[in-house]
Amino acid sequence: MATVEVTFTPLPVHVRTARLVATAVARRSGVAESLLDEVRLAVGEACSRAVEAHQRYCPGQPIRVELTDDGEQFEVVVTDAVPDAEHGTPGTAGKGANGAALPAGPDGFGDDPGLADGEIPLRLPDGVGLAVIAGLADDVHVTAAGSGTSVTMSWKRRTA
Amino acid sequence: MDLKLAHSNKDGIEIVDVEGEIDVYTAPRLRELLIELVNKKNYQLVVNMEKVEFLDSTGLGVLVGGLKRVRAHDGSLDLVCTQERILKIFRITGLTKVFGIHESVDQAIAARKAEK
């Protein structure tokens, strides 16, 4: 059973709440202070990804965040109701967790057609958010969860 | 903390001062400001992020889009940032190679003028 569970409607403003809760629970669970910024950013990325997907496909359904401390590691699971294959920005829809790349294209912008027309996009390709999470958490898994997707992030407990 | 935005012109370069959190909720405001500045033909931009407390990939997307937009007019978008927790996301995504990142606004302006 999760230490704390949070369910929120898929609105951008609630991502901040989820970040605050995750940081507070991590601190209370004894996660090193030096890792709290990483937890905050990674949870924010996962929740932003879920919110964006829900707003396109199922704005009426909630997003669930489970935070668990088993004594050895602190784990956060963000579960949405959108299949992984449907995640992605409009220009990269369908690339899912493994399809989009970091902005390492000819000019450092990748191949996202959404960036090619001189407009300012709101988000980089979906894979960038997951890459950020992978760069922050000790372990990351993206798995199917019912009809949706779960992003599981964990940090081993260690002192500061 | 919410997002506070201000901008001013210094030596022909538009300085955008950002304070607070840039995330999926607030990034649209930064995006609108960058679009407004470019539409007013400000193609030399410096975004001062010294008072930014949080930045996620949504904020990165807006900055990358802004850079792309000013480059279309042979312009530039440099950043001022010395905070390790903010710089970390630029390193993870490889964007340190895309943006000019400076330690102060004066340094960013001097670097830009040296390139002219």
TrEMBL record, chain B:
Pfam families: STAS (PF01740). Keywords: Phosphoprotein. GO terms for molecular function: anti-sigma factor antagonist activity. Coiled coil: none annotated. InterPro entries: Anti-sigma_ant (IPR003658), STAS_dom (IPR002645), STAS_dom_sf (IPR036513). Residues 3-112 form the STAS domain. Positive regulator of sigma-B activity. Non-phosphorylated RsbV binds to RsbW, preventing its association with sigma-B. When phosphorylated, releases RsbW, which is then free to complex with and inactivate sigma-B. This is Anti-sigma factor antagonist.
